[in-house]
Every structure is written in structure tokens, then in C-alpha cells.
Amino acid sequence: MDVINLTARDSGERIDRFLSKDLENLSRSYLQKLLKDGDIRVNGKPVKANYKVTEGDEIQVCIPEPENPDILPEDIPLDILYEDDDILVVNKPKGMVVHPAPGHYSHTLVNAVMYHCKGRLSGINGVLRPGIVHRIDMDTTGSLLICKNDHAHQILAEELKEHSITRRYHAIVHGNIKEDTGTVNAPIGRHPVDRKKMSTKAPNGRHAVTHYKVLERFGDYTYIECELETGRTHQIRVHMSSIGHPILGDPVYGPAKCPYKLQGQTLHAKILGITHPATGEYMEFDAPLPGYFSDLLQRLRRNL
């Protein structure tokens, strides 16, 4: 167990906020967990996260040894779009789960990334989600960002929170969208009846905004680009379904029968743009459309 000793220099600031400034490698949420577990003491006594420090307070932070995960590295090929000492950007294939979950601890992107990075991953999201800043659904393909250290993770998580990360998706939806561009501004929450689904009609839904523009029209279908302003679970799938244009192949929010043989929704995270956590440079990564998606577009064009 690592022990860090600090002395408060000022008075009146919440202890979690004070410590997050002094201990930049520890996130505020992790510090709050340490406070809850009694691993942070002031003048020899455990305190809560809302404790306000007083000048001269002696603060002891005990950091437990990291848990040994049962999540094992696996030699699974990765389609790498970019990599340096701080971040890794991969093009996730269809059918791959991003991180382990109960009953599903192998063959995930995390298993593959653990093998590739040889343990050099941020630990902020715990043993099941090392390096994971955001996620995309199992049958959604495309750009995904991985952090190799806690410093990079904290900066990029804040970018995500402030909606300053660019995330543009390509999708094929049912129906002919009349307008060339549009915005869906509708809160999203857990479906009140079907707990596996999300809904714009849920009580206590969270603010969610999706911007879309038409790229091509095929009569019964429309090829679109969606840009996320927020990042709720299933956001694009729920929002497009809510306006009567569910994503082609979506087994949850689309029609029961799909006219094409597809493995889930035709949704691809094409463009990911971030401000690099070390250099401050804005960078964009473009994940090429997967073969099944390009082939389907060609088939729809031939049918016009």
C-alpha cells in the first residue's frame, strides 16, 4: 500500500477538490472512493468528501494495492489507426464487445488491448475497463480511443464531459429523410418497461443531442452522418428510431424483419477528433467503412 502525506496550505476547500490538484495522477472520482473507504485521513481521522480542509491539516492518503484482475491478455489482432506513448486509437470490428462484463470475460477489446500494450494502460476505470474512456456497442464498428496512462485519461475524460471530442458516425436508416440536415434534442433514459432498452420517453431521462445530415438517398433508405453532442447509451440508435428512421439492421430499435442479412445495426464510428493530452494538438482519426457497409451501399446504389 502506497502512503502519501500532505499538509493543507489554505482553508475552506473541499478535500476531494484540494487533493485532485495536488495529486494529478488520481482522478477526483477515485479520491472520493478512497474517502468513502476510509483510506484518506485528516489529523489521524477518516473524513468524508465534503470535509473542508483547514490550513495546517495533516492529510494521509493510503492507496491500496491494485486488484489482480482475472481479465487476461489475449493475442487478438487490432486494426490500429494511431498509437503513441499516451493514446491508442483502434478501428473496432463488428461483433466485438469493448470491455468484459459478468459472464463475458474473454475475447473483448480490453483483452486484446491488454496484450498489445503489455500492461501500459490507465487504471482509472478499474480492472474491467483499463484504458477505456468511452465505448461503442458490440455490433457498432469504428474509432475507439484507449488511454495508456491516468494523466491522459483524466484530460480526455474531461474533454468528453465538456463535449469537445468530435464523434461523427455513418449510418443507413430506414425511410427517406425529407430534410437535408436536422437535430434530435430528446432526453434518453432507461425504458420504463423493457430494461434492456433506452427510450426518449423515460422518466428522468438525461439531456441528449444528435445532429444529422443526409449523405445519400436510396428511396426506402437514407445514408446519413450523425454527430454526437452528448454521449448517452444507444444515443444514435434511440434518437433515429424516435423520429421514425431506425437504423437498418438494428435488432432492438428497428423493424422485426430486416431485408438484408446483417449482423446488427449499420452504424460506424467514422471520425474521432481529440485534443492530444500531451501536445495540445487537435487530431482527427478516420476509420474506413467496413467491407459489409461499403458493399451494402454499392448494392443500394445499383437498385436506384
Structure description:
With 304 residues, the chain is of the alpha+beta class. The chain contains 6 helices and 15 strands. Helix 1 crosses helix 2. The protein is elongated. The mean pLDDT is 92.
Secondary structure blueprint with pairings:
Layout lengths: L1 E6 L7 H8 L5 H9 L3 E3 L2 E2 L11 E6 L16 E4 L3 E6 L16 H9 L23 E7 L2 H12 L4 E9 L6 E5 L3 E2 L7 E2 L9 E9 L3 E8 L6 H8 L24 E9 L6 E5 L4 H12 L2
Parallel strand pairs: 7-14
Antiparallel strand pairs: 1-4, 2-3, 2-4, 5-6, 6-7, 8-13, 8-14, 9-12, 10-11, 12-13, 14-15
Pfam family, one: PseudoU_synth_2
Function: Responsible for synthesis of pseudouridine from uracil.
Family: Belongs to the pseudouridine synthase RluA family.
Features of the shown structure:
304 residues, alpha+beta, 15 strands, elongated, RNA-binding, RNA binding, PsdUridine_synth_cat_dom_sf, RluA_PseudoU_synthase, rRNA pseudouridine synthase activity
